[in-house]
């Protein structure tokens, strides 16, 4: 059986990929249960890109083009936005499956290879970003892609290969270079914080040729992807957007402060466990591996800190890594502990601590496969995109409840518009329903048809629900400042937004900019409409 593991491992990867891929679509659609705003954010960007617009040049986003291009490519082949979203990670996984197969066989025992393969596939194809709540969402799917690809690259660079042949010399630099390029063009923080550890691992392992050829492959990949998007101009815009968001008061730090995050129960046990593993590696005379693991931990922690909800998805990959590094350890420490067994215990601890997140992601696919499509509605105006549906609908029509569910925001600063203090209200649900109703009411105004319209909330996607147009140079998700505001002909101010502080920031930015002037032209129970003077 062990001698035929190469066959059973291929069968395992292909079979699991097929099963998980089928679960990403339910009756030909993706059914969104929560975080509706994230699905609208994704839909805005891919539809704008399909129309020929370029991220960072035509609209502001801190995410790289590869977070959306796989979806756009499938839409160009005829898929709707839901179907393209469902199968984009399947397409990416098919491309990377030979690399996953090779890394598993060349660097791990069967148990480690199976663990790496399962984590990679579940992470890539999950329909939830993390957390512990059972749900289905498009929220931060690009983080899942980066965690999966990052784990594969770490295993490739850090764990010594047991097989050395022409494939190693030719293919491994390509895997590493293209993988780093993918991370950089998907979410740059993953590449920035993992790259030092990857380079350190190659230098300590004296893999200078692999490092050089990896850099070459990375440059080839980055050039091929970004040259059609504008080349140097694209990179200038990308860096500017990253710097803008990093300094943004609205989104510069999406989670808790770093120290508080590390002290949280979900983090501190894992960090202490991996630091213990580093001590054991030093005692086992693997100082190089210990140093690389320390650099990895720093990178993983910083990545986690930059991601909303601060989910430590690095725990299981760290456990698999420690298990592989313990393989040839035979020494005992001065307390008489067998260090191989000690490292194996640390590995089991790390993987156990990471299991709740993995279980949540597996559940997302099982839940999605069990949902009733008739309880979800297609909400976008274009029938071509009816394969992305949202919960809360029955018989294809959304029910608008008044008043909307709201959260008391007694600690929030008041929002003042033209000397009037707006209601202290913040929605917890009802975003899609309100956008639909707002779009209908705007369509009753002939002046609003084709007009670029700013929505004073987190999400700026009214054009998906009405005959209005997206903001030129605007931000599909608000990060602060006035991006695209000068092009706005109308501003819709919701009376009960998803982000009360965001509404206040938008109106404050308009008030402070002398080049922007808007006056009220309409008011109802949903919003106040301002028109450019």
Structure notes:
The chain has 17 helices and 13 strands. It has 533 residues and is an alpha+beta fold. The protein is elongated. About 3% of the residues have low confidence.
Descriptive keywords:
17 helices; three-stranded mixed sheet; 533 residues; single chain; alpha+beta; four-stranded mixed sheet; 2 domains; 13 strands
Number of strands: 13
Helix content: 40-55%
Content of β-strand: 5-15%
Number of helices: 17
User: What topology, given as strand order, has the largest sheet?
Assistant: 10-11-13-12
Number of domains: 2
Span of the ends, CA to CA: 76 Å
Averaging pLDDT over every residue, what do you get?
A: 92
The global form is: elongated
Describe the biggest sheet?
A: 4 strands, mixed
Radius of gyration: 25 Å
Runs with pLDDT <50, length 5+? 393-410
**Class based on secondary structure composition and strand pairing:** alpha+beta
Task: Write the element-wise H/E pattern from the N-terminal end onward.
Answer: HEHHHHHHHHHHHHHHEEEEEEEEHEEHEE
Any chance you could write out the topology, listing elements then pairs?
Elements: H1 5-23, E1 30-32, H2 36-50, H3 69-76, H4 81-107, H5 110-125, H6 141-158, H7 166-184, H8 188-204, H9 208-226, H10 232-246, H11 258-263, H12 265-283, H13 287-306, H14 315-325, H15 339-370, E2 376-378, E3 388-391, E4 393-394, E5 397-398, E6 406-407, E7 416-417, E8 420-421, E9 426-427, H16 431-443, E10 453-455, E11 490-494, H17 500-512, E12 518-523, E13 527-532
Parallel strand pairs: 1-3, 10-11
Antiparallel strand pairs: 2-3, 4-5, 6-9, 7-8, 11-13, 12-13
Helix pairs in contact: 1-4, 1-5, 2-3, 3-4, 4-5, 4-6, 5-6, 5-14, 5-15, 6-7, 6-8, 7-8, 7-9, 8-13, 12-13, 12-14, 12-15, 14-15
